[in-house]
Amino acid sequence: MARPVSLMPVVLVPLATLVLLCGSHQIEARGCIKGAAVGAVAGHLAGHHGVLGAVAGCAVGHHLAKKQQRAQRTQQLHPQQTPKPVPQPPQPASEAVAIT
User: Fold this and answer.
1) Which residues, 6+ apart, have CB-to-CB distance to 29 below 8 Å?
2) Closest to 59 in 3D by CA, of 47, 67, 48
3) Taking a C-beta distance cutoff of 8 angstroms, is the pair 41, 54 a contact?
4) Rounded to an integer, what distance in angstroms lies between the CA atom of residue 52 and that of residue 39?
5) HEC per residue, the chain
6) What is the residue-level pLDDT of the chain in tens, covering all 100 positions?
7) For residues 51-69, b (16+ Cβ closer than 10 Å) or e, as one string?
C-alpha cells in the first residue's frame, strides 16, 4: 500500500520562510498597538468581532500616526514665521474725575 504524502512540510516550509523574510526588515508600527487595543474593545462590544476591530484599529492608528509624523516633518522643514505685532496707535488718556 502506498503511504499518503503529508502536505504539512509543503505548506509549513514556504510559510516559515515568508515569515522570516518579512520579519528581517524594520517595520514601523506606530499607532498600531493603541489602535488595535481600542478597536478590539469596540469590536468586542459590537457583537464579538474583536479580531476584526483590532485589525481595523491597527490600520486606523497606523494611518493617524503616519499623518501626524508627516505634519511634524513638514513643520520642521517649513517653520512658520510668527507675524510681527501691528503697532497700536496711542489711546487718549482718560480724563480724571475729581470728587468734591
Assistant:
1) 58, 62
2) 67
3) no
4) 8
5) CCCCCCCHHHHHHHHHHHHHHHHCCCCCCCCHHHHHHHHHHHHHHCCCCHHHHHHHHHHHHHHHHHHHHHHHHHHHHCCCCCCCCCCCCCCCCCCCCCCC
6) 566 667 666 667 777 776 666 655 455 667 788 888 888 899 889 888 888 888 898 888 888 888 999 999 988 887 776 666 777 777 766 665 656 6
7) eebbbbbbebbbeebeeee
Q: Which three cell numbers stand for residue 90?
A: 496711542
